[in-house]
Amino acid sequence: MKEMIWKTRFKVAVLISILILATFITTMTLVSNSCRHDREAYRQCQRTNATLREDISKLQMDKRTLTERVKHLEKELSNKPK
CA torsion 70→71→76→80, rounded to 10°? Predict the structure, then answer.
């Protein structure tokens, strides 16, 4: 009788150990996938930031060009006889 109880306890302990191990493996897999997704999102964010920096640079160049054009037109207007 005692031997049967010990066998049952051993089986329960093995099953609990397997469940704990499976839970650990599942958790680590989910964390790994989450980190992979975070890295991909970070890379995408970096690409977006680089694109935005390029766009800002182009807009600044356009602004300089327009400012120079306005100054040139103002100069032409001021030199015109009334």
Answer: 100
Q: Give pTM, 2 decimals.
A: 0.46
CA distances from 44 to 34, 40, 56, 58 (A): 15, 6, 18, 21
Query: What is the CA 26 to chain-centroid distance, rounded?
Result: 23
List pLDDT tens digits, range 29-57.
887 777 777 888 888 888 898 999 999 99
**SS3 label, residue 50:** helix
Torsion of CA 45, 46, 48, 51, to 10 degrees: 170
- Nearest to residue 23, comparing CAs of 12, 15, 35, 33? 15
